[in-house]
Amino acid sequence: MCVQGGGQPWQNGAVTVAPDFLYGTAWKEDRTAALVELAVRMGFRGIDTANQRRHYFEAGVGEGLAAAYRAGIVTRGDLFLQTKYTYQPGQDHRLPYDPTAELATQVAQSMASSLEHLGTDRVDSYVLHGPASGHGWTDYDAEVWGAMARERDAGRTRLLGVSNVSLRHLQQLAATGAELPAFVQNRCFASRGWDRDVRAFCAQRKIVYQGFSLLTANLDVLRHPLVSGIAARHRATPAQVVFRFARAVGMLALTGTSDPEHMKQDLAAGALTLSDDETRTIEAIAG
Ligand SMILES: NC(=O)c1ccc[n+]([C@@H]2O[C@H](COP(=O)([O-])OP(=O)(O)OC[C@H]3O[C@@H](n4cnc5c(N)ncnc54)[C@H](OP(=O)(O)O)[C@@H]3O)[C@@H](O)[C@H]2O)c1
After folding, report:
1. Residue 260: per-residue pLDDT
2. Is 164 in the pocket of ligand 1 (CB under 6 A)?
3. d(CA 244, CA 254)
4. Ligand 1 centroid to 100 CA: how many Å?
5. Which 8-state DSSP code applies to residue 8?
6. Is 182:208 a contact under the CB 8 Å cutoff?
7. Could you report the per-residue pLDDT of 161-179, keeping only the tens digit for each?
8. How far apart are the first and last CA of the chain?
9. Helices 238-248 and 276-284: crossing angle, nearest 10°?
10. Which of 7-11, 18-22, 36-40, 270-274 has the lowest mean pLDDT?
11. Which ligand 1 atom is at minimum distance from the Cα of 215?
């Protein structure tokens, strides 16, 4: 797998689990294909999407990838592709499965549709977009998780993940005795210690924590004088400092920027070197 952006890829022993940054494809609508192609040209090798037409245009992601392959920028083998299964309440009327079918069948149908959209016979990571209930891991989730594991066993994904989960969800999932995810993808609020509890659970179990909304959920941090000071010292932007900080505390960051200059800056953040003191300062900034 190709490594870009100045950061190190995620390794589990000798196995490369994921690249050092993920390009997010939500909310791009008819710009999706062009932006995905651009992101790959700029150096992103990890792509995050979902078979949820309400927020993502997964077929557009596939078009962008196809254009990148045609242009000879990358091959499928250079990329880490991640998509998601989304329960019906998270979808609009444009469903990638028969809503009257059993959940396990919905998972299989959603995966088949994702593979078609993305023009591949296997993704690298398949993520449960969010559990059925905000309160805990339910039997519905257990059924979907089992179906996702069967997709993996059939070779249609390399790894599995869960998203929008609390520590309680993860503890309850673990208590079922089911296998743990390779990835947890959460919105990361500095005001909650940058999702400290979930990150600690992940770190103890070698689960890679993927953080999204690192900028948009933390506007106060971006404007904080301590962060501006660190950014000035490194001749970097506050956004770059936040992305580099995320990596320093063990996160795999997502960015969904539509701006080529920001794409460059986000990837270049991997090359910054924050001191332990600076990392601790940012970690403690908001709670
Ligand atoms: N699992 C889930 O439920 C879930 C939910 C939300 C998102 N996601 C994933 O995460 C991805 C990222 O979403 P996100 O919520 O993190 O945010 P986002 O939608 O990517 O927004 C990032 C914002 O930060 C700005 N930005 C990026 N780099 C910057 C830089 N270097 N300097 C200044 N501004 C910069 C962008 O503006 P410009 O465009 O102008 O650069 C944009 O306004 C999504 O596309 C999706 O793949 C997953």
Report:
1. 98
2. yes
3. 12
4. 34
5. P
6. yes
7. 999 999 999 999 999 999 9
8. 37
9. 100
10. 7-11
11. 24
pLDDT tens string 27-50 = 999 999 999 999 999 999 999 999
Distances from the Cα of 272 to the Cαs of 241, 254, 256, 264, in angstroms?
8, 17, 20, 13
* Residue 6's pLDDT band (cuts 50, 70, 90): low
Identify whether the C-beta of residue 201 lies closer than 8 Å to the C-beta of residue 171: yes
For the CA of 259, the closest atom of ligand 1 is 41
Give the model confidence (pLDDT) of 46-69 as tens digits: 999 999 999 999 999 999 999 999
Give the Cα separation of 27 and 180 in Å (integer): 29
Q: Ligand 1 within 6 A of 124 CB?
A: no
- 277 forms beta bridges with none
* Confidence grade of residue 14 (pLDDT, cut at 50, 70, 90): low
Kindly report the protein residue whose alpha carbon is nearest to atom 45 of ligand 1.
Answer: 24
Pairing mode, if any, of strands 21-24 and 46-48? parallel
What is d(CA 73, CA 65) in angstroms, rounded to the nearest whole number?
10
Nearest CA to ligand 1 atom 42: 257
What is the C-alpha separation between 47 and 40, in angstroms, rounded?
Answer: 9
